[in-house]
Amino acid sequence: MSGFHASQCGFCTPGMCMSIFSSLVGADNSKRPQPPNGFSKLKVSEAEKAFSGNLCRCTGYRPIVDACKSFASDVDLEDLGLNIFWKKGDKKPDVGKLPSYTFGGGICTFPDFLRSEIKTLQQHLDDVNITTSKGSLYHPTLQNYTLCGGIFTFLDFLKSSLKYQRYHLNDANNTVSKDGWYHPTSIKQYYELINSTLFSECSVKVIVGNTSAGVYKDYDLYNKYIDIGGIPELSSIVRKAEGIEIGAAITISRCIEILEKESKHMSSPNGSVVFRKLADHMSKVASPFVRNTASLGGNIILAQKKPFPSDIATILLGAGSTVCIQVVEEQRHITLEEFLEQPPLDCTSLLLSIFIPHWILDSPTETSLVFQTYRAASRPLGNAISYVNSAFLGHVSFDESSGDHVLSNLHLAFGAYGTEHAIRARKVEKFLTGKLLTASNIHGAIQLLKETIVPMKGTSHPEYRISVAVGFLFSFLCVHVKGIADPGKTFSTSPDDSVDIIEHDSPLTSRQETISGDEYKPIGEPMKKYGVELQASGEAVYVDDIPAPKNCLHGEFIYSTQPLAFVKNITFKSSLSSQKIMAVVSAKDIPKEGQNIGSMSMFGDEPLFGDPITEFAGQALGVVIAETQRYADMAAKQVVVEYDIVDLKPPILTLEQAVQNNSYFNVPAVFYPKQVGDFSMGMAEADHKILSTEVKLASQYYFYMETQTALAIPDEDNTIVVYSSSQYPELAQTVIAKCLGIPLGNVRVITRRVGGGFGGKAYRSFPVATAAALCAYKLRCPVRMYLNRNTDMIMVGSRHPMKAHYSVGFKSDGKITALHLDLLIDAGISEDLSPIIPSGVISALKKYNWGALSFDIKLCKTNNTSKSSMRAPGDTQGSLIAEAIIEHVASVLSLDANCVREMNFHTYDSLLLFYPASAGEESTYTLHSIFNRLALTSSYRHRADTVKQFNICNKWRKRGISCVPLIFNVSPRSAPGRVSVLKDGSIVVQVGGIEIGQGLWTKVQQMTAFALGQLWPEGCEGLLERVRILQADTLNLIQSGVTGGSSTSESSCAATLQACKLLISRLNPIMNKLRLQSATVSWDNLISQASQENVNLSASVYWVPEQGSNSYLNYGAGISEVEIDLITGAITILKSDLVYDCGMSLNPAVDLGQIEGSFIQGVGFFIYEEHQTNSDGLVVSNSTWDYKIPSVDTIPKQFNVEVLNTGYHKNRVLSSKASGEPAVVLASSVHCALREAIRAARKDFSCSTEPAGTSPLIFQLNVPAPMTVVKELCGFDIVEKYLENLSAHESAS
After folding, report:
1. What share of the chain is helix, strand, coil (3-state, %, to 5)?
2. Phi, psi dihedrals of residue 273, rounded to the nearest 5°
3. For residues 754 and 996, is the Cβ–Cβ distance under 8 A?
4. Residue closest to 1241 by CA, chosen among 1049, 1040, 956, 1050
5. What percentage of the chain exceeds 70 in pLDDT?
6. With 50 as the cut, is the pLDDT of residue 137 above it?
7. Is 1221 part of the annotated catalytic residue set?
8. Do 58 and 77 belong together in one domain?
9. Does residue 895 form part of some domain?
10. Would you say the C-alpha torsion 802, 807, 809, 813 has a positive or negative sign?
């Protein structure tokens, strides 16, 4: 991982390593041929699946895929991305340079204390004569497990052994443990337990894997648990003549293995198609971790008891499965359909097993079996629930008289569409049975289906779900009908094409081009990240990894669910969780010298608690304190808040309501962007005009991997130390001091590293740090707060939603003469940094020469959570608005959008007009050459022609391609730095910037080695290892400022360089004297002599950008090609090519990672991430269950990035440029390509979702644009229209 630059913030890296390791071991345990020495049996095509259940917000996944591919037996080493083992372009990369890999994973090593625990545990087990049935889930002896089997195997052993230890050491009946867990080993014991007096007044949960807790969160603690996984009947596997019976406690992963194995061993020539397709579908359910733990029966029980959108229940229903249930002393065998329709099961009934028929006939017949399963979900490889799922089974025969096919014995199952449970479409089955498969009969079946598939009230996207269900049935049936285009087939263009054809199911590939600089070594080299091995091994310490101090308590916020109300009273339900409450801290506990303040910026303050009025849903009302974080989290769920809205105006929750109520924040004149030219005159020059067209952009949650966290420890003399995961410790110190009413010097805030920030750990981190500090100050003991994902998503805030209306004038050739923009920005309840957002929007918009540009921007105050800066704040939205305008103009004129783009590129003179403070010298304006280079290297013109040809050849899949430019304004800020040399020659560096994954520490380390290298005998060789970067400490280094805006790395490097120069000026006289004695002076001798002569070996500076270097422009361009499935709306990003100007990169590997990661985060904003609230403004997309950031299976299939070295820039830090944020806006190329693909579909089906008389080729694609939106814009009724047209032809013929 470290060698492939596959770790940034590092918070997700240990999990990635474990997943990859598990996949390697799994592959090595297979019966595949032996791989070459040093490789695993893993295949390149499996690399992305190895960690499909893992999420990363930093890297964009590409380098992680390459790290995994490097183990694959069929890897082409030249295809691997940038790494430290060989240089790109080496003729024959040497596999020997890769770290050695021992086949089978090698021997895992564990800490001595863990070895001791295992040994002690094994001795306990050996003392007890334990025997198990053949079908038992548990294996208590170590001999059946080898530690080289992998992490997960070891954990399985440890888990099972602990269970057996509890069984056999604590109770004669082998069912009870001291911690409230019960483990029956037979059905009889289970019923004895539930009927005993032990459970009469207890809160009891019956579990196997307990993965349902990730879906339906526990709202209280349980004091009794019954683990039924040890009942042998639930873990049995019985092969029968008609199929296989699988115990309900068998995990989904094991079930997949069983089905795959049984399929291959069937007597049928092709095995059991039913088993094979069931296994394939199940592999897309949930994530590998969940499948390894969740039981097959648990999934079905959940689907029976709750409206759980289970894929497994649907596909087993379609396969004609039956179940065996135990009801007290009676066993019943019923169909799965009957089981799902029963009232919800209680603990008196046990699901024992599921029987799945294989449907293989003993003797040949004239009919053939057809079986297909389908799912529409936001992620192809799983880890996302289905909008709709289905499974269809039947027998098809050929009618010779008509030449058509006939279906019989049909099973048509549908689920997840907003139904209580999966169903069979009985009316449709009856209608189709025995009928000829023609277009008219399929159309009739679809009409019946639409009467059957009726989503429940409150179901999201109901029309989408119905339309996709129709599409699935159509896809299943059409393959048996003459003259119907099969949605499952893709027709490629001419095989003579010189451009590689990328399929939507192709494995991931990539290309990276970087140029390493030699002038300032080791600056400019793609060195691995500072401390990356600690991150990969899990040894890197984040705030929650800090060992809990003695008597440490834990806190969780109580938050409002109302947007505007008086808080009259706060009480708690009587529950087990409420009994764990040790204290509740609220506004009344703020010291009298302090203030109710939770955050602040230069524009205003925000209260810590809503008191006496809560102003938005999600506002903190208090903090619950308990002994553990879990207890605190559970206790907070027991809160009952009494609200009163008497005499209060209605809350303002929308931009329209803000306008109606004139609810605005002021944007200071210094932050309000400048208009350009005369709009009226520009419109008068126009040949064509587009008036008041709307673009909507929704919000985006930060989704850093490490949620907001802080640890506060009170100290002597009225002081406090706070460890905070923060991008701005200095201001956190100020907020805490104000809240507690103590001097700044009494508050020490420490930040070592941050597990991802993206702006969300700047001002939005203050309330957590302040609340923890207040609780610790009040209770006089350490308090830790670590927000769970739900609370974090609800309370923290997000990117600014916007609504824009544009009016634009343009010539017939596409030259734009004037643009006016009316922009509404939702700032939420407080200013935060919102007043700077208009400047970002307009700066991004100005990347084109609009002739004249005017705008009216209103910053709306609403009763929503405060919105704050998020990666490329304002620029991300402004860039999309600009592209929407360009493409609208191109559509009206029927011109190629790229021609319109280039027509409106800046000349250097117009660049000076639009960016007077940051345009720089003419030689630095590289956008034209970048855009041309990208078009050439990516074969854009030819690919565009190929896309057109593809769309002609394919009815149900369409492609689009688009290219967008980038101009991004960067403003470096002042920064402190201190470089100190210790007596032994070690070097410690402190800078104001925080390491949040952007490689700041790495660049500072390189800069230190470069600057001090002139005093090092070997240049800088070996000096890097001497450099240590220290954590941020507000009482150690002041005036640190905020880490953000993409410029903190270069500012910190500039400060480091300045401090090093100061040290060198002090050391040079000593060096000169020593050189009189010896030609070669070692570093250690130099420092020793300087120390003896009392030279100050610590240099502190405060770097301030010079006039002319406080603002500059970054340039880049991106091309993306996408493919959409018209049946489901599914989006595949086939290829993205980026070219980016980094100046002279300080570290090309770091900058490349930042570019890729920010691009993928932008893809999330523009396409996938739906940030949704309820009618009160409370965030409801508050977990990974319903908020989907990009995953490894949603990134571009081909991802190519070129980092340009554009030479000397006199006003830059060693000629470098920023890389952290700008590439986010290049992801708008995916959105634009998506618009082109949708336009191709609308053209083909002549559909329009716009008002009557509007061309179907002109439509608005808002942000985000997930598959539900794509399907809607392509048309919910396209299948019906297509069939109607075919039916008409049938009738005519």
Report:
1. 35, 20, 40
2. -60, -30
3. yes
4. 956
5. 92
6. no
7. yes
8. yes
9. no
10. positive
Residue range of the domain that includes 305: 233-364
CA distance 872 to 129: 64
Give me the CATH number covering residue 989. 3.30.365.10
- Apex 495 CA angle, 492 and 496, nearest 5: 140
Residue/partner pairs of 41-44 with CB below 8 Å, 24 or more apart:
41/73, 42/68, 42/71, 42/72, 42/73, 43/72, 43/73, 43/74, 44/69, 44/72, 44/74, 44/75, 44/507
- Domain final residue, candidates 315, 343, 364: 364
pLDDT in tens, 21-74: 999 999 999 989 999 888 999 999 998 899 999 999 999 999 999 999 999 999
Number of independent structural domains in the chain = 6
9 annotated ligand binder: yes
Q: What is the pLDDT of residues 598-640, one digit of tens each?
A: 999 999 999 999 999 999 999 999 999 999 999 999 999 999 9
What are the backbone angles phi and psi of residue 1070, rounded to the nearest 5°?
-65, -45
pLDDT confidence bin for 153, thresholds 50/70/90: very low
Question: pLDDT tens digits for 271-307?
Answer: 689 999 999 999 999 999 999 999 999 999 999 999 9
Task: Give CA separation, 526 vs 2, 550, 893, in Å.
Answer: 12, 43, 46
- The residues with which 413 forms a beta bridge, in sequence order, are 391, 424
Question: Taking the model in full, what pTM does it have?
Answer: 0.94
How far is residue 449's CA from residue 454's CA, in Å, rounded to a whole number?
9
Two structure tokens written together for 518: 């030699």
Q: Residue 887 and residue 892: Cα distance in Å, rounded?
A: 9
Q: Is 1084 annotated as ligand-binding?
A: no
Cis peptide before 1264 (omega within 30 of 0): yes
Q: Which residues pair with 325 in a beta bridge?
A: 332, 351
Question: Are residue 1273 and residue 1154 in the same domain, yes or no?
Answer: yes
Q: Which two tokens stand for residue 1255?
A: 């061309």
Place of tokens 């004091």: 223
Closest CA to 871 of 1046, 685, 671, 610: 1046
Prior bond of 522 cis (ω within 30°)? yes
Q: Do the annotations mark residue 1116 as ligand-binding?
A: no
Nearest to 220 by CA among 549, 826, 638: 638
Task: Please tell me whether residues 113 and 98 are part of one structural domain.
Answer: no
Q: Which candidate in 525, 556, 887, 1221 is catalytic?
A: 1221
Return the structure tokens found at 432: 């189709």
- The CA distance from 996 to 10, in Å, is 9
Specify if 617 maps to a domain.
no
Claim to verify: residue 1146 and residue 1270 sit in the same structural domain: yes
Residue 792 annotated in ligand binding:
no
Residue with tokens 């603002």: 1111
**Separation between Cα atoms, residue 903 and residue 917, nearest integer Å:** 24
Q: Do 397 and 330 share a domain, yes or no?
A: no
Strands (E), 497-581: 509-513, 553-559, 565-572
Structure tokens at 56: 């990363």
- Number of neighbouring beta carbons within 10 Å of residue 1205: 16
For residues 915 and 954, membership in a common domain is answered with: yes
Does 784 show up as a binding residue in the annotation?
no
Residue that the structure tokens 């700044």 belong to: 744
In a domain? residue 842 = no
Per DSSP, the residues of 1089-1119 read: HHHHTT---EEEEEE-PPTTSS-EEEEEEEE
CA atoms of 1236 and 810, how far apart (whole Å): 21
AA identity, residue 709? T
Structure tokens at 437: 């498969």
CA distance 474 to 497: 32
User: What whole-number distance in Å separates Cα of residue 387 and Cα of residue 378?
Assistant: 8
CATH code, domain carrying 426: 3.30.390.50
Residue 298 is labelled as binding a ligand: yes
Contact 24, 72 (CB under 8 A): no
